[in-house]
Amino acid sequence: MSSTLPSVSLVFRTLLAMLLLQTNCLAQMVIARGYQPFGVPDSVASGPVLETVLVRSSGECASRALLYNSLGFNLQRTADASGQRSCQPTNTVPGCHSVNLEQRTGWDYYLTGRSGQNEAVTARTDGYTINTYVSDWSSYPALLATDDPHRRWGVDCNRPATQSPDRECSRYILTGIDDGDYRFDDLDYARCFTYGTELRVSEQLATKLPVEITPDQPAQECPPNHVVTALSDDNSYFGNVDWMKCALLLANWRVNYDDCMFTDPSTIGGSTTAWGGSWNTGTPQDLVYGVVGLWRTGYIYTGFKQCRLYRVA
């Protein structure tokens, strides 16, 4: 008598097909929500890949990444004559000091969007305070590259630190400054925060701008969709900050320039509350804001501009 039960092989193939279908549907949803490449065009993650496979759509490539539970994927932008293009799932997250994007014509890098894609970020989540006075003068010259190989920015929200891998991966932005004497003729403390699990800024795509204003430049503001992440001075006292680093927001984060606030530090003085509370010259504690401009007139800090940040999902 013949058995009516399906073979083990058939059951396995059916379950595998269902899993692939479910994963592919999830991947298509990730792409359909308008998820965009993580970095600039013609660039991929510089780290190792898990596989290289031919696919017919970005959703199919995302499904491969989700199947591996990987963090992202490199994808060839244009299909070949057969309608296929190369796909490379990878666990590399560009934006870290040690791992960045590298140029590759015709390719893009995507995050899988597995975590934080639907994240509704309403307030800053984690932060710390930097004491600027203890900087070593010999380590922080006045002139330095935007992405200095020795991390010689005296105040760097994402300076590599063994106690915080998140700082290594460029997730923090400047949110406040303080002068302990309330005059704001020098800088004693800086505050950095991050927002949610998926905030990233670029260590490569950044601009170095002077902090002191001139008659021809009455304010010092970052380029579009850049925020301040680091400050540099030519002496360890950090009396007159010379440069600020404006880093490009990544992972679909943007600046809402219709929702900005301006503060003149010289008119309100330094912090009058505990470190855990609000600073006089700082972003709102319960809202998602970033610093887009900082400037001083001579020795006195007179400009601190902040704007609301949002994420395109």
Describe it.
The N and C termini lie far apart (58 Å). The protein has a four-stranded antiparallel beta sheet, covered by helices on one side. Strands 8-12-13-11 form a four-stranded antiparallel beta sheet, with no helix packed on it. The chain has a three-stranded antiparallel beta sheet with strand order 7-10-9, with no helix packed on it. Residues 26-35 and 114-118 have low confidence and may be disordered. It has helices at residues 8-32, 58-67, 165-168, 265-268; strands at residues 43-45, 53-55, 72-76, 85-90, 101-103, 107-111, 126-131, 155-156, 173-178, 189-194, 201-210, 226-232, 243-249, 253-263, 289-297, 300-311. The chain contains four helices and 16 strands. It is elongated, with a radius of gyration of 23 Å. Helix 1 (8-32) crosses helix 2. The longest helix has 25 residues, at 8-32. It has two domains: 8-111, 3-Layer(bba) Sandwich (Hepatocyte Growth Factor); 126-311, no CATH class.
Q: Low-confidence segments, ≥5 residues, pLDDT <50?
A: 26-35, 114-118
Q: On the 0-100 scale, what is the average pLDDT?
A: 76
Q: Largest sheet, if any? A: 4 strands, antiparallel
Task: Report the total helices.
Answer: 4
Q: Give the ordered list of helices and strands.
A: HEEHEEEEEEHEEEEEEHEE
> What overall form do the CA principal axes indicate?
elongated
